[in-house]
Structures are given as structure tokens and as C-alpha cells.
Amino acid sequence: MNIILTGANGNLGQHIQKLNERNKAFTSIFPLVRDNWDSLTNLDYKKVDAIIHTASDIHADIFSKPDEVLESNVMITAKLLRLCKEKNIKKFVFISSCSVYGELSNSAEEKPIQPITLNGFTKAFNEELITAFCKKNNIRYLILRVFNSFGGDDKFSVLFKILRSAKQGTPFVLQNGGLAERDFIHVEDVAELTQKLTLMKLEDECINVGSGKAVKIIDLVNFVEKKFGMLNKVEGENPNETSYSVANVKKINRLIEFKPRDIFAFIDSLS
Question: Directed axis angle between helix 187-199 and helix 11-23, to 10°?
Fold first, then answer.
């Protein structure tokens, strides 16, 4: 299978490429980033089997640059879908997010979603657009709702912020006593699962990608402090924080046998 990979310079994109350098599961990967979008005109699309769309922008401020946020997170998806139709690319894989579930404690993929954040609404809109467009144009689609990834070139996760506070003394805001529970999955596991699921003959599927294990933020903080010393903690209160976000992994466990890396073992391996 030959693929176009968006967000190739991002954490997940880099690990998909590194994994493929080792196992050669994809015949070829065309890495697509902002700077080489024009090079799409030179591709031989008869050899392109799928697009894996990992690109998104979680840093731009929608309140000051709404056009950039929509361009990076919505319009690029629309352009890629149009490319699939015009160039007869038969498979579209979209990296979505657990944020589409909002406060829902049951994250079964077949249940209605309930986003409460701008990121969640954006991902949900992309999912609806992909579903409708692909069904209308006979394009197979795969939506992967990734939970909280960590590891690799991570500069965003709560674990990154906790570790940075322990090592550099930067403030870490511990919201609501750290009682929120999250599902953490290593980026290498996400890359491996993305590769395997893309290669499978799946049609029109939405799949959670997570560990299925609930971890309290305060437990992460305590574990890091035991290993690296006290954090520069700042107590905060956020009434909008989702208290429980854990993947229902029944579907992915039926499809693939895998053992996700443990986040505490990961922390313990760090120096």
C-alpha cells in the first residue's frame, strides 16, 4: 500500500514513518507538510492507495486567528477529501480525538458523541464531513479516536507538563486536585495501531485507540515526584474539566491483539 501522510513532521507522523522504516509494511509513504503541499501536483496518483490524515493545529488561538484554526483543522480535511474523489484514492484514514466524547463516561464508538470543547467540536465536524462525503463518493474511511498520547516528541500532553515542572521548575497547574481520570497511550502504540488498521480491509469504521486503563492525574504527579522531586504545583479549579475520559477498547481488542505500554513504566525508564 502506498500512502500520503499529512502531519508528517508531527509526533505521530514521525513515528508512523519510523515504524515503516523498520517493518516496510507500507510500500511507500509520501510525507505531506505545509511546505510541500504544492508537490501534490507531481504525484502519480495511480500508485496512491490511501491518505492518513494526522495533521491538526492545537496551538493557534481561535479567538485571535479563527481563519487559521479553520484552515488547519477543517479546510485541509475538505481539500484532502476532494483530492480523494478527483484522483480516485479509495481510502481515507482520519486521526480524531477522544475530545468528541466530552463528559460521556461511556465511550463506545456506536454511542452518540457529545463534544464540549472547540477541539472536540472541530473533530466531530470532521468526522461528520468524512462520513457523509466518503459514503456519497464510494471512498472507504477509517476514523481513529485517539486518547491521550504521550512519549516521543511530545510537547503537549499533561505528562509532558508534569515532567517539565519536575525537571525545570516551571509551574504545573493541578486542576481540581488532580482527581480527573485519563486514558494514556504511547505514541509508538498509536503509530503501530494506525498502520495495522490502515492495512486491514476495514470499511466505514470508527475505532477508539487507547489503553482502556484509567489513570488519575494526581497519581501521575505523585509518581513523578517520587522519581524526580517535587513539582512547582499551582492549585487550580476548572469546573469545565472532564472528570473521566477512558477508551472503550472492546472493538479494537476484537480486531488486534496488542499490549499498550504502561505510562508508569515509561516514567520509570526516564533519566
Answer: 60
Query: For the chain, what is the domain count?
Result: 2
Cell 472536540, located at residue: 120
The answer to whether residue 254 sits within a structural domain is no
Is 53's pLDDT higher than 80?
yes
pLDDT single digits (tens) 123-142? 999 999 999 999 999 999 99
Instruction: Please list the alpha-helical segments (H only) found in the chain.
Output: 11-23, 66-70, 76-87, 118-136, 158-168, 187-199, 217-228, 250-255, 263-269
Neighbour count for residue 163 (Cβ, 10 Å): 21
Looking at the structure, tell me whether residues 139 and 242 fall in a common domain. no
- For residues 75 and 81, give the distance between their C-alpha atoms in angstroms, rounded to a whole number: 10
Does 109 have pLDDT greater than 90? yes
**Cβ atoms of residues 159 and 263 within 8 Å:** yes
Q: Which of 46, 133, 144 is nearest to 89 (CA)?
A: 46
Average pLDDT across the chain, whole number = 94
Instruction: Quote the domain boundaries for residue 191.
Output: 2-148+186-209
What torsion do the CA atoms of 193, 194, 196, 199 make, to the nearest 10 degrees? Answer: 170
| Cβ count near 255 (within 10 Å) | 14
DSSP annotation string for 39-51: GGGGS-GGG--EE
In terms of pTM, does the model score above 0.85? Answer: yes
